[in-house]
Batch of 2 targets.
Target 1
Amino acid sequence: MPSMSLNNIIDLRSDTVTVPTPAMREAMASAEVGDDVFGEDPTVNRLQEMAAERLGFEAGLFVASGTQGNLIAVMTHCLPGDEAIVGDQTHFYLGEQGGMASIAGVNPRPLPNQPDGTMRLEDIQAAIRADDAHYPITRLIAIENTHNKIGGVAVTAEYTQALADFAHGRGLKLHVDGARIFNAAAALDVPVSALTRPADSATFCLSKALSAPVGSVLCGSRDFIKAAHRRRKVLGGGMRQAGILAAAGIVALDEMPQRLKDDHANARLLADGVSRIQGLTPVGSVPTNMVYFDIDPALPFDGQELCRRLERLKIKALLTGPRRIRAVLHCWISREDVLETLHALDAAVNAGDTMAPSDTKVGSY
């Protein structure tokens, strides 16, 4: 695909900035629709069936966002006053405004995430509450795959199966926040269902690496999805003629997963080039489509200033710490865009106190 041509800016802040492909726009324009709150939108129904089949579940529920899907999952698996075990670096815990506690009434029990995105089973075992009236009841374990804060690492099918067996052996449920689960499947070269079927529920985002404009799908058993439908309603998630949006999701499921390895290759190309720029250091092994890099303390500027310089060169990246920056590759970023980004990074790092936009050609990174 060509690079995103919004004012000729290369936008690497997130794969959420993707716009619909021409095929998605055509599908949206011609979508057959109905009232989805009554279950009568045929395009939504088709998307839900496709999603459930791909992830290895009985049923699916189209929701407005991954955050909404995760919250619905918690509300369906747990009762107010229960407890859910989550990783301390997960989006579930850090990036969803505490909805688990403030809306679902469920206490999060954060445990350390390991460098591979997992939680140790022995840590989980120690965190399960005893049967005591003073304690909340442990009901749920939730994991994230791919794991954003740990560099987009893909959590393996073997761990997911082992964790599901562990949970079920103790009467607990397992939910997978699979916002970028198709990236994980591509990186591990396994069917996506291998990363979700062992769990009791899973969400994935259509609006990130799969490039659809809006929406996620929550999957689980038929009984689970029936109960989840009620929770979606109370959260304001009944979107009526949502087939216009679901049509883009169907194209996303059909056409986008098979090209995700291209994004991963471009991410590795970017990380390799960053490693050659003095003063910048990539973080981790770059297993999927995310590149984090740190700015050497010896450089006389911080991450905010580097982002400012890049934006003057028509490159956008995301500041995630005082001296840490994230770049996310997606379908609208080409290999040529990566090379242009590396050239801009080199210029930005080596610029003086003032820097004008450069029209120099791409360097040989």
Target 2
Amino acid sequence: MANKALLVGINDYAPVGPGGPDLRGCVNDVRDMAHTLNALGIVAAEPTAMRILTDERATRAAILEGFEWLLNGAARGDVLIFHYSGHGSQVIDVSGDEADTRDETICPHDFATAGMITDDDFRVRLKGLAAGVNLDVFLDSCHSGTGTRELAVLDAGSDEQTVVYRYIEPPVDWGYFIEANPTLPLRPILKPDAEETPGQLGTRETVVVRRMNHVLWAGCRNNQTSAEASIGGSFRGAFTYYYCQALRRAGVSITRRRLDSLVSADLAKNGYSQIPQLEGNGTALGQKVFT
């Protein structure tokens, strides 16, 4: 059996250096996740098992190539992890295969010129995933532009913004159609060909999705934003930080459902309004993490 991870964190968006819609906590998220996976014996900190893409190296082409590396040769019992920390957005379904929906996206370093990554980009790659492969996907990014605001955005007596949101407005050629049709349903990224239990999507912390061949850990619901803030003296994504903390406390014998509830409680206790959402088939959600 093989255990592999692809970890992507983007602080510096094109152009390289100041000037892009930059973030501050995403590279720290990658470090936190890499340290946690290695410390708990889930994925070894070795180049053959763990790939890390940050900042200008996390281009659209590199992320998609890395995702293919992650899935290549996967067989029953393998443990695969894809973690993305960076900006998210949403666009109208420009491919035309589902013209009545809009897509959530993730934003590579060069999204402004190369384009965002949508579920259509992942669809063909996930379709061939062998039965019995354990794939956990983590998205610490905003799922829409209509999210709630945090209460404590500014430090007392300071003008510095201490909580920022990982959302990028879509380009006007895609974003206009969402503005003109605000009631269009949202098609979540990385859930191709899955069937949601009616009435559950976006309304609960844990969502059972029949025939889903992976597990999705979303940093927030699909109508919220994911925050990054100064935590422990460094900027980090709130979801990734509290996920790693909870997993280290609990160990790998905890179930996905139980771990999700611990992360949600920690976020709420520390004043974050975002509610993480765990999605997958019923069997996977009740199993121990990474099995």
